[in-house]
Input
Amino acid sequence: MSILANKDTRVVIQGGQAGVNAARRMAEFCYLIKRPLNVEAFVYPPDAGKTNEIPYGSGLIAIPVYKSIAEATKNHPTLNTSLVYIGADRAMKGGMEALDDSHIKVVSMITEGVPEKDAKILGAHARKLGKVFNGPSSIGIISAGACRLGVIGGAFDNLVLSKLYREGSFGVITKSGGLSNEIIWICSQFADGITTAIGIGGDAYPGTDYVSYLEMFENDPQTKAVVIVGEMGGDLEERAAEWYGAKKRRVKLIAVVSGFCQESLPKGMKFGHAGAKEGMKGEGSARSKSDALKKSGALVPPTFGALGPAIKETYEDLLESGQVKAPVEPAVLPRLPKTVEEAMKADEVMVAPLIRTTISDDRGDEPCYDGYPASELINKGYEIPHVIGLLWDKRLISKQEAEIIKRIMMLSADHGPCVSGAYATILAACAGIGLSQSVAAGMIMIGPRFGGAVTDAGRFFKYAVDNKMSVDEFLAYMKKNHGPVPGIGHRVKSLRNPDKRVKELVGYVKSLKIKTPCLDFALEVEKVTSVKKDNLILNVDGTMAAVLVDIGFPVDSLNGFFILSRTIGLIGHWVDQKRQDSRLIRLFDYLVNYAAPKRREVPPLK
Amino acid sequence: MAKVLEGPGMGLMKKWGINVPNYVVVTSVDELTKLGQVNEWLKKSKLVAKAHEALGSRFKLGLVKVDLDFKAAEAATKEMIGRQVGSITVTQVIVSEMIPHKEEYYCAVKSTREGSEILVANCGGIEVESNWERVKRLCLEIGQSPSPESLEKLSKEAGFSGALAKKMADFAGKMFACFDSEDAQYLEVNPVVLRAGDDELVALDAVTLLDGDAKFRHPDWNFAFAAEFGRAYSKQELEVMAVDSKIKGSVKFIEIPGGDTAMLPAGGGASVYYSDAVVARGGKLANYAEYSGDPPDWAVEVLTEKVCSLPGIRNIIVGGAIANFTDVKKTFGGIINGFRKAKSEGKLKNVKIWVRRGGPREKEGLDAMRALKDEGFDINVFDRNTPLTDIVDKALQAK
Output
């Protein structure tokens, strides 16, 4: 047997994420004791109508979320307990809602920082209705082998170590949430474990005090002794002592009280829980509580450390007198399935990776590009072109190469509003489309006729150089197999109206006195083609391509240089339109050649 | 529980219809001089000047001056502002009018488990403390308000009669209204005085403790809460409080000058048992600290730095029970970072560190602590099989 929480406890959790986390812990316990999940519903208006997925074993259970307690109990009439995880400013309203529902018999409030007045009102209301209001600031309630309410009991391993899968003989009542597990653990190591452990919360006026729970334990035949972990402040321990001393009790009482350090601290200094404050006339001090408990006949070890031996002594008496029998431990306990991560850490599974990367890794405190930490690159004077080199070609390029890339980017960052890419971005921007989509609209234009010839130009120039072709052989090869030479020809520029960008780039690269076989070949090609037609000049795509192949960039990365550079311009155009709050663009009729058939009658549908 | 200084405390009482003396809180003499030009009472009445700080024994320290005219009040203010008392600098002075009176009484409202209690006595000042049996009480359940009849009965029981009994009943009623509406935990007026001239009851000195947790529903609480132990919070304490107010979970830190055993335990409950153990073994606490509720590691790191910076420490107790949901690995990560930082700043020389803990990811956390040995820390690490406070015994025996 147990008190307050048992196998019939069906739970609704009021609250959001904290409540979901508690439900996970509760599901772990249910799994350990091989019982179905005891949480049936959540009440959390923002998520009403959704479900929360709670892991149970290796599966997931969907628990519905309702907007009110009434709705939850209507759909789940067996609900009898509510756990409140609502913020302090709304906790009282939530607690009242639960108490006022006829299905709910026990309300345990986990919320911390609830105003004292609210806690008193809730406690008084519960007493009036004959219900239990536990908390606020309660860590929860756990009955070994039967029911867990809240996170009390801790992680799965601790549940097993503390033998919470089966009943013991000791009841536990604590103000401190953190110490509840400690006492449960001590009871399992120095005795046969617990029946029920209750966190009543560390506030000054908890909704239910030691005496109410002592009374319940007294009436629970399985509980043979109760351990109270008290604190200075208030008079709950004195009341417990009064109860214990009033008449012969069936349960044995073991108690410790904290706060003796107060005696040697500067006057007025206090710490610990909100309730841990001494009265004006020394009442509520650790010493007066401890003395009262001793006087009542309770076993009061001098320190927390002596609690274990005191529990052991009590347990041995109980064994000797035949009141308890040594427990039989189950042979096999369920093991909580590990997550894939945990199992991998323990070298228990091998997972075939989904993707493979060879360029970057951000699992540490900062990203590494091809192994080099970004901050170190910055601090050692490397720049954007070097990052491009690392991520696109996995090598640290030279200062000179970086300068070439920088110039290429500067020359191709933008080309006015009329070209396909910029125009598409502007069109989208004027239609009120967002930055990334508008830039993507411009990006979509990059292809065989606009900006997308860099890779192909590089590929064919390289093919010619690698195969030591003459210009004539190359042009014949292209004509036969592929058509016009990518990188040659311009819509508006020509021999007489040369492209300044090409001149600039060629001039710079040539000044460096490096070997540029592709560029040299491309210029030879231009000499021949431009004679045939004066706009068949080496264009900026072709120049970039030849230079980039010459400094070793892989052919497949070449279009990337244009895409990257032009993104700068596209973003600029979007921001520019946005800044001007430009209107929607619609083509004028006179810009369209309407070549569709004249208006005619629609024949009857056959 | 949050203490409120006299100025804002009086303000709250005034709000609920309780007569209080005229007062002003100033931060400079100039401010007082200007106020004197617009507030006639400052020039006409006899005045009291007090340092408006969370300081005990102000009278003995010369930080209360009575029976002053305006010039003398200005002089007193000038003298008090900027005065250094221990770690506190006086920054505010409250100047209030003296109320001529013959009789002194007592009235208080305190929080009880059932609700509250109104206390009334027909003596006041120091007299009430030595005649506590003269204090009469009216117990109220939560949600219940005192009826005028019950208040008058209380007043008569306390020895008031005639018109005065009614006045005291009325005064107590207003005190209750203030207590109940302002989420107070303790209100005490000692003395309540009968003002010569108009025979009205006036609250002369007030202790106001409010429920800090209820601040969310009192937008007019525009004052800072004062430290409750007779000194102001130190810079380090305020820094930890600032972190505490920002995070999920909590970190707490109080300095205790002169100690040699530094505390860095987890949990509001366990931390006090650890402190008890230090005192029981004859150690001297250098501080109180506590972290709980799975706080972020950086917050624990800040707390650790403060603990490591305490002067003259020989041991650090990194204790803790078996946690429910605080991640031991993560919070210990914060502590370890704090330790490393302290060490790199030349701190922690000849300081022994004692660790005991359990809870989620306890093994990983404890292993990480143990590994600090290799970095030259003098650290001793124990798991759940060592009883909670045994590390304190070991630490204090070691010296």
